[in-house]
Specification:
It is a single chain. With 514 residues, the protein is α/β, with parallel strands linked by helices. It contains 17 helices and 19 strands. It has a 7-stranded mixed beta sheet, with helices on both faces. Strands 9-2-1-13-19 form a 5-stranded parallel beta sheet, with helices on one face. Strands 10-11-12 form a 3-stranded antiparallel beta sheet, covered by helices on one side. A hairpin with a 5-residue loop joins strand 6 and strand 7. The two termini are 36 Å apart. The C terminus is likely disordered.
Length: 514
């Protein structure tokens, strides 16, 4: 009998399993898929010799995460690589703004759109860097993050600075850039980063979301794993096994076994019941856990839970690097493929209206200039994804939509389509089939908008890793702080399990809430 069973071998599940194993617990991880990793995997899906990251690909939150840093994955084979530029944003009009791991170079790029914006960028970046370490610690701690929050207040300083930061936390990005900048460059960088999730330039809190990724990019970068995202998973698994943990793949858990109002084990799809003496950590979506995996008498209806938008992703094998018109785009690891702030708002509005985007915002990754292990010499392995509204995807239009995505790249990199050797298309159903947590192609475990964050994640009353069933902990991206490869959801669940006998922190009345 293990001390703990972890359901799911994604980054959160593996992080939590490692922490428990380090504490001396006997840990068993059960994964439904034939291989571990969840949304952190890579494979040769276009052609032999071309390595594609199947889901996530670059990892700003990974290098910022205190939980992953403590695991020292570099000692288990992980190597981070950085492109010369973090992210470039080429416009169809030929202009380009670029984020670097250097505030001064980024400020110069922003200032090329309006001279005064360089100083504004330096000022705001300095203010952000002052608070970033404490903010990231607060973000990745269980809610409420009392000690990290106190450190953040000390970092902010006076009452005015605290009030300004609180205002930034609820401000739409469009209003923020209107107050602070004169040109379009800063707006593109910040809005493009907000759109990495389903936070739009006009959403409350989108200004802060944009600054989180921009700030981490300038201070720590957006690295990739040499050889592919699979190397992150491989390092987590190697570390777990070294600590004495066990991983079993191809073992789907369909039920959490509850006896005496306590979680005592799991039942697999094959009918096997496996018990655990101390805890069950579920790296599964909140609706799957609360509405299906628990016994009927313990289920909770999450009627108000909202998934983030669906994802459509294309991977390419190319005969050469992408021929961007802008040199900055050629040296960036990540490229935002869209025009300015209004274009990004239009894309978001089409998602809200439930129609397929006419000019989809693309997040694109490329590797040849800084990780040659991804493709044969002189070739390129690249990818791009975009979002569509949940429930609107039409599989019959998949190839046509992929063509539309390629046209967006071609407009900024003439000759791109002639370089395509093969392409692989991941549609929302395909993403969910590859990882059950990517429901409908959602990649963040639920919307990142402010109404489903902090104490509201996954729903009011369930804002901590503890669940209403003692011994059971939610360890997936459906828990605070949400999506991204940072391991915080799993780490928070593991530390809650280690803190002592589980207490019923949530009243039964929560079961009647949506």
């Amino acid at each position: 009998m293990p001390d703990a069973i972890v359901i799911g071998a994604g980054p959160n599940g593996l992080t939590g399993a490692n922490i428990l194993a380090d504490a001396g617990w006997d840990v068993l991880v059960l994964e439904a898929q034939p291989s571990p990793g969840g949304a952190v995997r890579s494979a040769e899906i276009t052609e032999p010799g071309f390595v594609s990251d199947l889901f996530s690909a670059f990892y700003p939150l990974g290098v910022a995460s205190p939980h992953l840093r403590r695991l020292d994955l570099q000692a288990h084979g992980l190597e981070w690589l950085h492109a010369p530029a973090v992210v470039a944003h080429p416009h169809s009009d030929g202009t380009c703004v670029t984020l670097y791991r250097d505030v001064e170079r980024t400020a110069e790029s922003v200032a090329s759109f309006a001279a005064s914006d360089g100083d504004a960028w330096r000022r705001l970046s300095a203010a952000w860097q002052q608070v970033q370490p404490a903010f990231v610690a607060s973000l990745m701690s269980p809610f409420p993050p009392v000690r990290p929050a106190l450190r953040m207040l000390r970092a902010l300083g006076g009452v005015k600075e605290i009030a300004d930061f609180a205002r930034l936390g609820v401000m739409p990005l469009r209003r923020h850039v209107k107050e602070e900048f004169r040109g379009d460059g800063a707006a593109r960088l910040l809005a493009g980063n907000a759109l990495h999730a389903d936070v739009t330039p006009d959403s409350a809190g989108s200004a802060l979301y944009g600054w989180v990724l921009v700030g981490i990019g300038q201070s720590l970068g957006w690295p990739v794993a040499r050889g592919g995202a699979q190397r992150i998973t491989d390092a987590l698994v190697a570390r777990l096994r070294q600590a004495g943990g066990e991983l079993r793949c191809g073992e789907e858990v369909v039920e959490v076994v509850v006896r005496g109002d306590r979680a005592v084990g799991v039942r697999t799809a094959g009918g096997e019941e496996i018990t655990a003496s101390r805890a069950i950590l579920a790296d599964t979506g909140a609706p799957a856990l609360y509405e299906r995996m628990l016994p009927e008498s313990h289920r909770i209806s999450l009627k108000r839970f909202e998934y983030d938008n669906s994802t459509v992703k294309v991977d390419w094998s190319l005969d050469a690097p992408i021929p961007w018109r802008n040199e900055e785009a050629r040296i960036a690891g990540t490229v935002h493929v869209t025009d300015g702030l209004d274009a990004m708002s239009a894309h978001a509005a089409e998602l809200t209206a439930g129609v397929l985007p006419s000019k989809p915002f693309l997040l694109l990754g490329q590797y040849s200039h800084y990780d040659p292990s991804r493709a044969p010499e002189g070739k390129e392995a690249a990818w791009a994804y975009t979002h569509v509204a949940q429930g609107t995807w039409d599989e019959a239009k998949a190839e046509e939509f992929a063509d539309l995505m390629e046209e967006q790249v071609e407009e900024r990199a003439p000759g791109f389509r002639k370089l395509i050797r093969k392409r692989h298309l991941f549609t929302p159903p395909g993403l969910e089939a590859a990882d059950q947590n990517l429901v409908g192609g959602s990649v963040n475990g639920g919307t990142a908008q402010i109404h489903q964050q902090l104490v509201f994640r996954p729903t009011p009353g369930l804002g901590r890793p503890e669940t209403p069933v003692p011994g059971l902990y939610l360890a997936s991206a459906s828990a605070h702080p949400g999506g991204g490869v940072h391991g915080a959801c799993g780490a928070n669940a593991a530390r809650a399990a280690l803190s002592g006998p589980a207490r019923r922190l949530v009243p039964r009345a929560i079961r009647s809430l949506g």
